[in-house]
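Sync notes, pocket subgroup
Present: LS, DG
LS reminded everyone that the earlier model was apo-only. Rerun requested with magnesium ion included. Inputs:
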Amino acid sequence: MTLLAPDAKPRWRSFLEDVVSDEVQRIVSGQTNHLELKFHQIQAFDPDFADILLLQPDHILREGSNALRTYCMEMGSQQQTDPFIRVSNLPLDSRRVLRNVGHADVQRLISSEVIATKVSEIKPRINRAVFQCSCDYETEIMQRDHTELEEPLQCGGCGERKGRVKFTLVKEKCSLVDNQKIEIQEIPERVPSGAQPSSGMVILEGDLVNRVLPGTRIIANMVPQMHSERKGTRKTPLFEIFYNMVSMETETEPFTEINIDQEDIEKILKLVNDHPEPELLKLVTSSIAPSIFATPGLYQVKRSLALQLFGGVSRISPDGTRTRGDIHILLMGDPGVAKSQLLTYMSNLSPRGKFASGGSVTSAGLTAAAVKDGFSDGRFALEAGVLPLSDRGLAAIDEFDKIGKQERSAIHPAMEQQKVRVAKGGITATLNSRCAVLAAANPKSGRFEYRGGNASIMQSFAETDLEAPLASRFDLIWLLSDIPDRGLDERIATHIIRNRASGSSELQIEDQMGSIVNIESEEMTETGLDDNDHLTTGFLRKYIAYAKKNIHPTIDTEAQSEIVKYYIQTRQNYQKGMINPATSDYSLNSSKGENQTEISVTARALEALMRLTEAHARMHLREVATIIDAKMAISIFKHWREESNIRDEAELQTGISKAGQSSIVKQIMREISVENDGKMPISKILDRAMLGGIDEATVRTLVSKMQQNGIIYQPPNTPGTYEFV
Ligand code: ADP
Ligand code: MG
């Protein structure tokens, strides 16, 4: 390779002196050990030189670091480590998509928008090696990369060649640098649909190590390098590409991957303006998966999905605790009711959407995994799972019930606190998983036993084999059952047939555009099969990204009291209507009149209502959520709560309603009483109730109520033991 700038060192020297001497001073005084330059600074100083930097970055940057080191030493620097030069904000024509990087880019300076998926431990690497010859003369060799240790070819003292004399490494005189490997992947949004995202291995050094966690999106400014592939001990003529990171820019604003120009913003504002209250939600709802016919059940589902796309606002309270804004939705349903289709559609539609199927997630699963030998060099590596990779987006998880038990317990904090903590193999890290979860679950036995009437959705939930507490992590749970209905069946059939008949052959579309889903469509609306207009996927994505980025609604007091009113009302309904006065359970509840209740107001249901309210306001680009938003949120929430027949919060948490819990506890007490000549030690009651999934606090409240009501009493001199009256 002919050097385009043999005079690189003096050119750097004058740049360092003329342009950035203040920054160099900071290195000399030990405040930092690297120099961060923007490409345009070099370009303004010497445009030719800047171009050469893009063409021969290794040479230019090495000379730059040398010039910097000499300059710093002249200025009296005492630094032990060698200073580095980092150049960022590269021009757009250096931007590449990972899948297109080929031989022409090798050893050029390129930039690419990527997501880090795996991050290794740190290892020290020798940067400047000092070798001692048998004659005691010491030679310094700058090491190029991590692939092999370069020894001197000839001794500078005695003049003997390598092989005839022995060079030993003088470790204490070498200068070391931290070295870390990361795996990067193309931004999912940029991957043609259906294709696997391509990935690559990047070396980070010095101050760049530990700056990214798996799941972080960065603009990587890097130099592709070749490393010959080996077959056993022999080198082959094929090369694999790895990258050396020169600098990286972390994204400061989310959703920059979707370009929204002024014209788009005007279209969005007009759309919202032109569609008064219920119209906009209807339009967005009908734009979600138009090829799936909206039966009354599916219409409810789609409407909640519309709100999920926009999401509520995550908040950090003054004491630092965080409440999530993302809305989690679970679809349970018989096979063949278009659950998987909806999930696929949503993951394509949502900015930063990701689809995973419970049966076949990667080794990192949904959360994260520490993998031994992650880069086949013995180092531990931390790999992000689906949820961290969908950070600030949507994770559609199909076959949720097929996820391993161990993994499921890790999902609770990942969904609620939206953080994934890993402490394995010497790696501790906390990854963000701030994404909405849309999950689908099938019944264990192939079909839900249709109960109808007063059956609770929790009975169906139990049929999916998911742990009951998981249910409370979802804001909404829908049950889609496949019950024959002549009228509906006919309409679905017509819809499916028209849809198939009108679709273009996938092969033809791929030939024309190379992509099945045309997300870059410029059109705002298109006409669906039902002859109604709906929004195109491309436009909807822009609209969602714009609203999420710019609108952060707060809920006004009127809307707040509407939500509270609804909540209190449902609690009272429960008390009046849903418990059969004939059962003994009633006496437990009613002893102190109307307003005594056993239902604890869990913050979760209220939070779900607030999130739905905020999402509705956000869809309408309102900074303040009003009673209109609260009413819509309540009506959606009501639909699942009332149709699902969930009796109280306890049922959502444990799978057993309070009423159910109290009768189980009473049954247990009767058993114990029979076994122990009428005596019931509280410890026994607690132990047995625990086996039935009922917690201590619940048992203690029940027992003390029964005592107050005169059903049981505590005989004297036997603390902790009860008897029936
Ligand atoms: P699931 O994941 O619920 O088992 P799928 O998403 O695989 O079901 O759907 C099965 C098939 O039935 C798909 O081809 C889907 O398009 C079709 N289908 C089911 N319900 C509808 C509907 N309401 N409208 C359009 N297609 C439907
Ligand atoms: Mg399915």
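DG: Residues 509-520, 576-601 have pLDDT under 50 and may be disordered.
LS: The chain has five domains: 5-89, 98-250, 301-308+317-498, 554-654, 658-724.
Action: DG to write up.
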